[in-house]
Amino acid sequence: MFVLNQNCFSNKEGIYYSCPWIEHGLVFFPSKITMCCFCGSKKDEYAVLQENFDGNNFNIERIFEIKDKFRKFQKKGKIHVNCKNCLSLKSDAWDERNYIDAVYISHWTTCNSKCSYCFSIQNPDEFKFKQYHVLEIIKNLFEKGILKRNSKILFGGGEPALLDEFEALIDFLLDNGFQDIRVHSSGISYIPCLEKGLKEGKIHLTISVDSSSRETYKKIKNVDCYDVVRSNIRKYASSKMKNGEANVSAKYIIIPSVNDTKEELENWLISNKNDGLSYTILDIEENWYTQNKNNIPSHIYELLKYAQQRSVELGTHFELYERIGSLFY
Ligand code: SF4
Ligand code: SF4
Fold it and tell me: Which CATH superfamily is domain 99-259 in?
């Protein structure tokens, strides 16, 4: 359903409100394909491209028809109800040709962690679906010139290391010159096939740690794997790029009342530096954020500033994921 959004009118010919994912993105979710992996204005609801997807009924022509339909509405200032207030919407002269340059493989079929904040904990049905395969779809789109070599390819939503086609996917992407591959992992299992892409700077690996001690880790993740994760981080960080940096980040999701202390954050920053990482990534727990976004306590802002300042001092690039980024800037 499309709704009129007064903020999304553009009077200039060829200019309209849209986002990169509506234009050229695909997300493989359990049993469906969506435009993006963000929930625009409504929690857990997406702009869907195909329901009841099982890996065998992929239809790119139909997907492009839906994207065209979105464009037609957006040119009239109408936005899909699930995208209505999304911060990714912007007015631009979008390239309306039909191609794909962003793919998110978000399988949600299995994970080796049990993070308290995980989408799957609040939505246990998500893990009920069987894994389907996307390798042949990706190959086919690439061979037809529909999937661009400069595409952003992301893995997340469950543990990619546990996918039986993960290594084949990574090999295919690297062998065919893809340079912007982003993998989100729990870090509990080491994935050797990532080493080549890390060294070449074509893969960025993000490992969710959220803590600086075994106790806090266990409280958040509900598995006792802090030491193995830190050991895997060190191993990944040894696959350095030519410039001497490791294209690996440890991510810290701030969970108020659990890990929102300067001490925990400082120890995490130091562990990252000692383990050879070159990036600092912060985010904030989604459910807490949704309930408190209009009343964020001052110590959260102070923590963010502190992490930024310490990242500069330690020489680790500072990055904020979208949710928390909107607080900072
Ligand atoms: S929710 Fe936002 S990012 Fe996703 S398709 Fe809609 S506008 Fe784009
Ligand atoms: S690592 Fe990711 S997918 Fe796995 S339980 Fe944690 S949040 Fe969920």
Answer: Aldolase class I (3.20.20.70)
